[in-house]
Write a structure and sequence with these properties.
Keywords: Disulfide bond, Glycosidase, Hydrolase, Signal. By secondary structure, the chain is an alpha/beta fold. 29% of the residues lie in helices and 24% in strands. The protein has eleven helices and 18 strands. The strands form four sheets. It has an eight-stranded parallel sheet with strand order 9-8-7-6-5-2-1-10. The protein has a six-stranded antiparallel sheet with strand order 11-12-13-18-15-16. A two-stranded antiparallel ribbon has the order 3-4. A hairpin with a 5-residue loop joins strand 3 and strand 4. The structure holds 2-acetamido-2-deoxy-beta-D-glucopyranose (NAG) (4 copies). One 2-acetamido-2-deoxy-beta-D-glucopyranose binds next to loops.
Length: 382
C-alpha cells in the first residue's frame, strides 16, 4: 500500500516538473519503418538498401527523414548489460548503419520495449533504461520507439517517464515515440514524456482495420499538437491489402489527423502509384502545417456512410476531406460553409489537393459528386 501511495505521489511530482522539451516533433515525424512489410525478417542489407532508396526514390525530397529499425534487431546483453545487435543479421552493429544513414542526410530510429522482453521476445529495456539510452546515443540514434509487450501490471506513465528522463540525460535530442496502444489514455499525459504516442492497437493492411482506427480517433483529436502527436499507427500504403482508392483515403486521413507519416512498404521496389500517393505534396503540407492542430470529424451522414473531416491550417484556410465509407455506392457529399466557418455566405475558393488545382469559387457550399466507394475528395478551402 505504501508503495502505491509513493508511486502516485512520485507520478504527480514528475507530471508537474518534467516536459519532454527536446525540441523535436514540431511537426509530425515522417519516415519509414521496417515492421509493416518485413516484420522480424530484417538485417543490415535491407535497412541500408531502404535508406538508400529513401534518397534515390525521391521520398527524402518529399520530406521523409527517419529510417526506423523495428523489433528483432537485438539478441542479448554483454556482461556490462550493454544491449547487443544480432551478430548474424547485423554483423557490423547498429552504429555502422547509423553512420551510413547519416551520410545520406537522413536520421535513424531504433526500437525497444518497456518490458523485460519485446513483443518478439528480444531483450526489452525494463531496468536497463539508462544504459540503453546511453548506448543508443553513443551509436548516434535519433529516434526511439518503445513498445509495451510483457509489461504485466506496470504503469505506462511511470515506465515511459523513466526512459524519457534517460534519453534526456544523454544530452542527445532523441525523438521519443511511445507505443502502448492507447492503454491508460496516453493522450492525457504523454505530451510531457514523448513526441508521439500510439492511440490504438496495431494497424493491419485492410480497409476495416484502417477505419476501425479512424473511428477511435474521433474523441481524442484535441489532445495533440506541436511537440506531441496522436499516433494512429504507421502507413500501409503500398503493402497490397487495400485498393489504390483506399490507400488514397488512408493517406489523406492520416495527413489530416496530424499522424506520423511513417511509410511501411518496401520502398526499395516502390511502384509509381504508391510513390505518387506517399509524395502528394499538398496532402503532406496539410500534415506538416505549422499550426499543429489535428483535424477532426465535423459531420457524419447516413449513419457514418459519408463523413466530413476538417483541419484548420496556419494561414487561416481549412483542409477538408469528404469521405465515402459506403462499400458499394458512389456518393455525393455537400460541404456547407457553416460546417467549418462562422460566416456561411462568403465566397470561398475550393482547391483539390490531389489534383493540385483550384476547382472554382463557391458561395455557401461545395458539392462533390461521384466519390467512389471507400474514396474521398481532399480540399483546401480559403
Ligand atoms: C532535457 O530537458 C531539459 C529540461 O526540460 C531541456 O531544456 C533540454 O533541452 C532537454 N535535453 C534533451 C537533450 O532532450
Ligand atoms: C535480409 O532481409 C531481406 C528482407 O527480409 C531478405 O530478403 C534477405 O534475404 C536478407 N538477407 C540476408 C543475407 O539474410
Ligand atoms: C514510373 O515513373 C517513371 C518516372 O516518372 C517512368 O519513367 C516510368 O515509365 C514509370 N513506370 C510505369 C510502369 O509507369
Ligand atoms: C457491397 O460490397 C460488399 C463488399 O465489397 C459486398 O460483400 C456486398 O455483397 C455488397 N452489397 C451489395 C448490396 O452489393
Amino acid at each position: 500500500m505504501y508503495k502505491s501511495i509513493i508511486l502516485v505521489f512520485t507520478a504527480t511530482i514528475i507530471g508537474l516538473s518534467i516536459a519532454v522539451d527536446n525540441g523535436l516533433g514540431l511537426v509530425p515525424q515522417m519516415g519509414w519503418n521496417s515492421w509493416n512489410h518485413f516484420h522480424c525478417d530484417i538485417n543490415e542489407t535491407v535497412i541500408m538498401e531502404s535508406a538508400l532508396a529513401m534518397v534515390t526514390s525521391g521520398l527524402k525530397d518529399a520530406g521523409y527523414r527517419y529510417v526506423n529499425i523495428d523489433d528483432c534487431w537485438a539478441v542479448g546483453r554483454d556482461d556490462n548489460g550493454v544491449i547487443q545487435a544480432d551478430p548474424i543479421a547485423f554483423p557490423n552493429g547498429i552504429k555502422y548503419i547509423a553512420d551510413y544513414v547519416h551520410s545520406l542526410g537522413l536520421l535513424i530510429g531504433i526500437y525497444t520495449d518497456a518490458g523485460i522482453l519485446t513483443c518478439q521476445k528480444r531483450p526489452g529495456s525494463y531496468g536497463y533504461e539508462q544504459i540503453d539510452a546511453q548506448t543508443y546515443a553513443s551509436w548516434g540514434i535519433d529516434y526511439l520507439k518503445m513498445d509495451w509487450c510483457n509489461t504485466y501490471l506496470e504503469n505506462p506513465q511511470e515506465r515511459y517517464t523513466i526512459m524519457s528522463k534517460a534519453l534526456n540525460a544523454t544530452g542527445r535530442p532523441i525523438f521519443f515515440s511511445l507505443c502502448n496502444w492507447g492503454i491508460s489514455e496516453p493522450w492525457m499525459w504523454a505530451m510531457d514524456i514523448g513526441n508521439s504516442w500510439r492511440t490504438t492497437g496495431d494497424i493491419a493492411d485492410t480497409w476495416t482495420s484502417m477505419t476501425v482506427i479512424l473511428d477511435l480517433q474521433v474523441p481524442i483529436t484535441s489532445f495533440s499538437g506541436v511537440g506531441g502527436w496522436n499516433d494512429p499507427d504507421m502507413l500501409e500504403v503500398g503493402n497490397g491489402g487495400m485498393t489504390t482508392t483506399e490507400y488514397i483515403s488512408h493517406f489523406s486521413l492520416w495527413s489530416l489527423l496530424s499522424a506520423p507519416l511513417i511509410a511501411g512498404n518496401d520502398i526499395r521496389s516502390i511502384d509509381n502509384t504508391t510513390f505518387s500517393i506517399l509524395t502528394a505534396m499538398e496532402v503532406i503540407a496539410v500534415n506538416q502545417d505549422t499550426l499543429g492542430r489535428q483535424g477532426s470529424l465535423i459531420k457524419s451522414i447516413n449513419g457514418k456512410d459519408q463523413q466530413i473531416w476538417a483541419k484548420p491550417l496556419a494561414d487561416g484556410s481549412k483542409a477538408v476531406i469528404l469521405l465515402n465509407r459506403n462499400d458499394n455506392e458512389s456518393a455525393t457529399i455537400q460541404l456547407q460553409w457553416g460546417d467549418i466557418w462562422e460566416s456561411p455566405s462568403t465566397s470561398l475558393i475550393v482547391r483539390d489537393l490531389w489534383a493540385q488545382q483550384d476547382i472554382d469559387t463557391f458561395t455557401g457550399s461545395y458539392t462533390a459528386t461521384n466519390i467512389p466507394p471507400h474514396g474521398c475528395v481532399m480540399l483546401r478551402v480559403y
